[in-house]
Amino acid sequence: TRRSSDLLNDAEKTAGLAGKAYALDGVAVIVHKDNPTANVSLAELKDLFTGKTTAWSDGKPVVPFNRNTDSGARSVFQEKVLGKDAFSPTAAIKHDGVLISSVSKIPTAVAYTSLSEADETQIKVLTVNNVKPTAATLKDKTYPIGTTATLATKGEAAGEEKAFIDFVLSAKGQAMVAKEGLVPIQ
User: Fold this and answer.
1) DSSP annotation of 115
2) Residue 175, Cβ neighbours under 10 Å: how many?
3) Contact indicator for 27, 182 with CB cutoff of 8 Å
4) Pair type for strands 63-66 and 92-93
5) How does pLDDT run across 116-167, given as a tens digit for each residue?
6) Alpha helix (H) residue ranges in 20-133
């Protein structure tokens, strides 16, 4: 069993994987608390992370942070924001363990992370296309960078794998999902 950051794609299904959605999450766009920006469009976000935009509206340099190549948030961001375009080589890669603290220390930083990890006591979460990432906007799919957390197995789950998935989808399991900051699927 593995955790995927979105529903299985056709190649994964063709390879024999079966998936079961267990939670919703969003990729939150984060900046320093003092950054005056409150909202970005998907197009502006793309420009920030491809390097087309190098300064904020006040002229201060944009300091973009990227995620590791194996990051689920990165793959969702790539698909839903950048499409086929590449991340700017100036977007320094930050491990999720230091991303929030890095953004909290650099006034012109911008990054993205799982909504479940976005600690608004340290950073500011921007709205995207004027929509704030919340449980409601993830459920109604109005937040444009939402994702479905999925447990995947090789073939249909059986035995201990099925028991684990059944637990995750149970009331107790879904309560644990919520405690971790994800939006329960049930």
Assistant:
1) G
2) 10
3) no
4) parallel
5) 889 899 999 999 999 999 999 999 999 999 988 888 888 888 999 999 999 9
6) 42-50, 72-77, 96-105
